[in-house]
Amino acid sequence: MTNITKLALAALLGLAVFSTTASADVNKGKKIYMKKLKAPCGFTGAKFARMHTQDEWEAIKEAGKMGEEIKKICPKSHLKPKYENDIYDFSYEFAKDSGNVPSC
C-alpha cells in the first residue's frame, strides 16, 4: 500500500472512533436523565433540554452552574456532580434550537 492510502485509512479509522465517542456521552446523558431525573422532574427529557438554547446551555456549563441549573429546573432532584457533563451533552444536543428530539 502506498503512503497516501495508509494515511487515508488511518484518518477514516480515527474519524470513526471519534464519532462513536462523541455520541456516547449524549446517549449516556439520556440514560442518566431517564434513570435519575425523569421522576423527580415530572417531565420528559425533551422538555428538560428545551428549557434553553444551545448557547444558553453552553454558557451555563462554562460558568460552572450546571448543577445549580438542574436543581432550579428540577428542585426535587439529587444528581451527583459526576453526571453533570453527560446531562450537559444531552441537553446541548436536544436544546430548543437544535432541531433534535430525544425519545425519552
General description of the model:
With about 100 residues, this protein is mainly alpha-helical. The chain has one domain (about 25-104). Helix content is about 70%, strand content about 0%. It contains five helices and no strands. It has helices at about 5-40, 45-50, 55-60, 65-75, 85-95. Helix 1 (about 5-40) packs across helix 5 and helix 3 (about 55-60) packs antiparallel against helix 5 (about 85-95). The protein is elongated. The N and C termini lie far apart (about 45 Å).
Search tags:
single chain; 104 residues; mainly alpha; 68% helix; 0% strand; elongated
- Main sheet makeup: none
Domain tally: 1
Helix and strand pattern:
HHHHH
What is the percentage of strand-forming residues? under 5%
**Low-pLDDT runs:** 20-24
Q: CA-to-CA gap between the ends?
A: 47 Å
* Individual helix count: 5
**Structural class of the helix and strand makeup?**
mainly alpha
Helical content (DSSP H or I, runs of 4+): 55-70%
Mean pLDDT: 86
Shape: elongated
Gyration radius, rounded: 17 Å
User: What is the tally of beta strands?
Assistant: 0
In short:
The protein has one domain (25-104). The protein has five helices and no strands. It has helices at residues 3-41, 45-49, 54-62, 66-73, 84-93.
Q: What's the SSE blueprint?
A:
Blueprint: H1 3-41, H2 45-49, H3 54-62, H4 66-73, H5 84-93
Helix pairs in contact: 1-5, 3-5
